[in-house]
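Q: Predict the assembly, please.
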Amino acid sequence: MRSVRYLPAARPPVADKREAILRAATQVFARNGYFNSKVADIAHVAGVADGTVYLYFKSKEEILHSIFDRNAGEIIAEGRKLLGVLTDAREKLRRIATLHLERLGADRDLAVVFQVELRGSTKFMEEFSAAGLAEYLHLIREVFEEGQRAGMFRTDLNAKVVAKVLFGALDEMATNWILSKRRYKLAPMADQVLDIFLNGVSVR
Amino acid sequence: MRSVRYLPAARPPVADKREAILRAATQVFARNGYFNSKVADIAHVAGVADGTVYLYFKSKEEILHSIFDRNAGEIIAEGRKLLGVLTDAREKLRRIATLHLERLGADRDLAVVFQVELRGSTKFMEEFSAAGLAEYLHLIREVFEEGQRAGMFRTDLNAKVVAKVLFGALDEMATNWILSKRRYKLAPMADQVLDIFLNGVSVR
DNA sequence: GTTGCCTGAATGACGATTCATTCACAGCGC
DNA sequence: GCGCTGTGAATGAATCGTCATTCAGGCAAC
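A: Predicted assembly structure:
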């Protein structure tokens, strides 16, 4: 409930400025690249003054981190939730993959930040890797091992490598999607990837 | 000081400087990231003056491009050479993959530049993509289609998607390798990837 | 008039690029 | 040999813009 009826534009309706800044930053970073983006641009798009940005974030870098933390956390949490609902390992992997691509496919700017901007320096990469990627790979790996125990997946495969193969394939779908001129739906690619993948790791 | 001193400036065959700068830049970019690297650092590591860099390269950006062009060209050329020697599509894919990972595994700094620095902005990404990646994906795709015609690979799969899956998996192996604290050989991972991949795309 | 959010001009650093200058050497006439 | 001079590669200090960040107030509401 944020209804301040009078003073149409004078009193900014307690709008969540932090939220506006994050959204603006995602767009600006996606369009210009992190290093070429000016804090002033972000402030302008968000409709606040340059200095206001520093009331909500310690630095430009912290903005990028916040974008990552917020979204990676949500994707992984949703992924884990799926595991409770489903029982079949194949189905779990399929749903996780679809969720992954649906998320990125729903917001192109966010996808660009995730696929490109967050990878642009070993420094970010290491944090990115330590933070979200490692956990995500672990999630996939757990499900795969579960499937191995159920006699569904080949036991001669290294689960860590398997997880990277699946993640790498999905990641490439996302990267190709944002770079492509053609507009197609990203999420459905998950099924094609899983088709090849599951066929490759399943017991015959 | 009329006497001939055999120190840094004895008789440097001019070509060596360009080479030295490229090598130095690969190291500096890999260590600090492209945007955090100062041209002065590159010059220092290369053992030349700041200004000298501009006798060989138009700009800092051109240095990054040169690193990419030189190496991407070589990898693809070698890949195509393999196609002439081998006949079996499976074997071709296996050798291409191994070549890919061997190349990156042989020079960690170069691998960092390829896996991380070149991806750090949509601008670079688009050029990178247009230049080498598209051609590389095409190479994989051709071989796959050849295998399809030979009745070796499933014909219900989209060759473009298949190529991306394989590339994505290999790419992830490389990225994980450079971020990993543990030191292992990269090239052998190609066999594990191909095991899953070929199993997934082959006719039963 | 006080509190607390906001503002945006000013500041200070930083770093890519430039360019006036140096220097080694090659050719040349003697 | 021996000066003399032209050449251009190499140098690195100075330049010039460009921002991230700061901070001295402004303004609304109570």
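The domain at 10-57 of chain B is CATH 1.10.10.60 (Arc Repressor Mutant, subunit A). Chain B has nine helices and no strands.
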